[in-house]
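Aim 2, interim progress. The first record below pairs a target sequence with its structure tokens.
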Amino acid sequence: MAQIWQNIHEGVFKHLENLEEIVLNLQSKICNSNQLQAAQKSTHQLAGTVATFGFEAASHIAKAIEILLQNQPILINIDSLLL
């Protein structure tokens, strides 16, 4: 099990980096629907992966973040709409 964790822990940290980026974008109100969907996918995958390795608290937190992201209104950077 330890060897498997060694093989996938980098992916777990990549999911965390993606989540950090989306949180910053949400705070700046420059998040688009693609970013939001990517963040939802990352949290879903993160929740499952960490649960597999017994990190139940981390899994519950990731699931809660996923739910919050699902209920997040889509924010679009107004500059991206200007042609």
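The second target in this work package is listed in the same format:
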Amino acid sequence: MRGQRQGVAQMRSSLNPACDCRASLVAELMRRPAAAEYATDPLRPLLASLIAGRACGAGVLPTRLGLEPPDFTALWDHYFPGPPLSLEAGRCQDLPELDDLIDLLLSYRAGKSQAEGWVARLVAHGCAGRDHLWQDLGLADRNELSLLMETAFPSLAALNRSDMKWKKLIYRHYCQRDGLYLCPAPSCGACADYALCFGPEDQNT
């Protein structure tokens, strides 16, 4: 019977090893005894998914997720007490506008959690990838990214009324803030590249 259960577990793992890797690591992180202030933070499960995804090789974030060493240590000590997971550097390119993107995101932060400042850095670094932002961050899907944005930067998320792709939205407001408007179309609906900015964000689009 025990051998049969092990065989079933091995079969499930072979069907979707990346999903199983994430799920087991998220469960382990969420079992760690964080103080109530951090255990109840709605950003905690999203950070757990991001970290687990990165540990499983998803995303492009750097070794410390783009955080300064003291912030990286604080993230683990406060939200996931215990030994950090092993995170290898992703394929994160240099981004000249990185600091500007961080400042933009911070200007929209909810002001409820220290982690919002860390998330601003994570998201800005994720913009250096070439896939959808949720993929570049190592999240499980776009729904997790939407919840992350709504929680950490609610006033920015509220501007996404037409379900624009998140990386496109961030850069749109970044350009507008600096007085740049590069899109030649008079409105989004009239733009030939509408599908590039709006629509589903799955593995194949």
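The radius of gyration is 18 Å. This observation will shape the mutagenesis plan for the next reporting period.
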